[in-house]
């Protein structure tokens, strides 16, 4: 972080089904995907504008918020 193209989420623990969302600083949800969170997940950010985004990963065993900076 920061990124120009892709964000990779890596985990050694299986968190099961989660919903990953990206929200811009104006509160608009610009990305949402339901995935099995284990191993490596990639989010392609090529089409997003430069700025700061909040990545939320929410599931039965996880609820995480992280800041992503897109150059």
Please give the structural blueprint:
Elements lengths: L5 E6 L5 E8 L4 E8 L2 E6 L6 E9 L3 E8 L1
Antiparallel strand pairs: 1-4, 2-3, 2-5, 5-6
Task: Give the key terms.
71 residues, mainly beta, two-stranded antiparallel sheet
Instruction: Decide which structural class fits the backbone.
Output: mainly beta
What is the overall pLDDT average?
A: 96
Order of neighbouring strands in the sheet with most strands: 3-2-5-6
Instruction: List unreliable stretches of 5+ residues.
Output: none
The major β-sheet equals: 4 strands, antiparallel
> Strand percentage, roughly?
over 45%
| N-to-C series of helices and strands | EEEEEE
Q: Count of DSSP helices?
A: 0
Q: Level of helix content? A: under 10%
Task: Report the strand count.
Answer: 6
How far apart are the termini? 10 Å
Give a verbal description of the structure.
By secondary structure, the chain is mainly beta. Helices cover 0% and strands 63% of the residues. The chain contains no helices and 6 strands. It has strands spanning 6-11, 17-24, 29-36, 39-44, 51-59, 63-70. The strands form 2 sheets. The protein has a 4-stranded antiparallel sheet with strand order 3-2-5-6, with no helix packed on it. Strands 1-4 form a two-stranded antiparallel sheet. A hairpin with a 3-residue loop joins strand 5 and strand 6. The relative contact order is 0.36. The mean pLDDT is 96.
């Amino acid at each position: 972080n920061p990124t120009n193209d892709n964000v990779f989420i890596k985990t050694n623990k299986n968190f099961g089904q989660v919903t990953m969302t990206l929200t811009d600083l104006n509160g608009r949800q610009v990305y949402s995907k339901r995935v099995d969170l284990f191993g490596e997940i990639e989010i392609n950010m090529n089409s997003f504008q430069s700025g700061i985004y909040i990545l939320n990963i929410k599931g039965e065993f996880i609820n995480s918020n992280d800041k992503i900076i897109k150059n």
